[in-house]
Amino acid sequence: MIGTGWRRRLASLFFVLAASVLAAEAPRGLRDSRLLSFAVSDFRDSGGKRWIRMSCEYEGHYKESVDDLVATLWDFPRSPRVFSRIEAVRVRSDADGAAVTEQKSAVRVLGLAFVSNLVFSNRVSRDGPGDATVSFEMIETDGSCLSAKGCWTFEDDPGPDGGATLARYSIESCVAPRFPGQEAVMRIFGAAEIGRLMRELGAAVARKGDRG
User: Fold this and answer.
1) Using an 8 Å Cβ cutoff, are 177 and 184 in contact?
2) What is the pLDDT of residues 60-76, one digit of tens each?
């Protein structure tokens, strides 16, 4: 049962997150996007501990090239300036298309915070000159997540309006429930947060192009 105080905080949280989504940076660089799938569910691990599982897949067209998009994603120290939910990244190793990174991410709203300090194994692969895959998987956790993995795939897709890159982003994670109503918040705003992430990547690559 959620108490009156928590209900008020959650009502305020819904309002602030909704305003944040509406005020998100205009999709410079991202020509269009659409949600392909999204699900949030309760999950119990082998020991009976409860987690919240989320999976999401988005698709969109960027105005920038495959190479520019991959370069922006692989510039790990710059990630906190690209993605608003990433606070810090430290690179442990980076060689031959494989990198290990320590990442601090956080959602902080109205005194509520979900903070994670995770270590990821990242890989980039090329099957041809016009496509690329950037994948990531959690390999160490601070206890905030049971698992997290996903990937970006890019391929040249000129289309009728000229050069473009077709991108797909997918992620699946199991996170710890840290506050009452968290699962409801994730159900309502989780997909929008992924859409925001795609817009942030497009805006970052566009800004880089403006600087030449």
Assistant:
1) no
2) 999 899 999 999 999 99
